[in-house]
Amino acid sequence: MTKILFDNDTGIDDALALVYLLSRPQVELVLVSSTPGNVSAEQVARNNLALLQLCGRPEVDVAVGAAAPLEIPLVTTPETHGPQGLGYAELPPPPRQVLDADAVDLWIEAARRHPGELTALLTAPLTNFALALRKEPRLPRLLKQVVIMGGCFFYQGNTTPTAEWNTHVDPHAAAEVFAAFEGQPEDRLPIVCALETTERIELHPEHVERLAREAGCAEPELVLPEDPAGRRSTATVPLIRTLSDALRFYFEFHRHYDQGYVAHVHDVFAAAVAAGTAEYRTRTATVHVETRPGPLVGTTVADYRGLWGRAPNARIVSWNDPPAVFDEVIGSISALARRLGED
Ligand code: BDR
Ligand code: CA
Q: Which domains, ranges and CATH numbers included, belong to the chain?
């Protein structure tokens, strides 16, 4: 079993990542913690709870930690993920509530209770993780592995010309997290899935069609560029309907920014790395995060050659295998959708 602490800002690609993890019988989700980013922390938590309910796993605990980034006001992105964070998908209000405890404290308790056993997966701004590291500086050694979606290295940003979204939302948190890992043994350094490799995980309408077919949907699930914006899925399998409605919004967003009718599902790759199902290569580096206000705020720079004379603080993914990721993710989610069945 891979035991995962999952911190996200659900978010369309976070949602797909969560569903993927829930689809893997070999993954135990110890806690889903909700960080403000794509939408507010409360909305992230509602989305997480609603998705857990949809996937038949309402018993998985969800918690909220920080309500805003460490030092700057929260900026959300409804244009990327929709007003509620799940694109066009609308889920019934979840019956379960978030835990009545701070996500940061729950992370620390879980890591102390299971030393060396937990994988931390972070697909949101690093606010909660930075707060956890302040309270428990031994976390890098208590956790088995840390996987982060964030940053971009010598590759253009998706939020400013040089900054990636998660890092731009809370650059101070990202800087604290990388500082906390500087000097740790190499096998403890976070595995960083940054834009130069996560944008290769490019989802196309054909992937949605294949997912629905493998899930046993009666009709082909066609999400087409020529469809009127916002058309809703009529798939007979609720999980497929939800994912299709969410992804249609993400396709339209990417097209709006001249990237084509595609969707970069960054967080899904990070989830597959955390679950141990993705092949990848890494390079160790010392990461610097620019925190000073100005056009470069949130920019991440990697020193791969030790030119700063500082110890490494990250293992940055340098290669991944997108077709294999899609084979794995589509196969696993469609099997879950089949188990859950039709309306
Ligand atoms: C990251 O930003 C968010 O909008 C996505 O969910 C992903 O985690 C990509 O830059
Ligand atoms: Ca995210």
A: 2-201+264-319 (3.90.245.10)
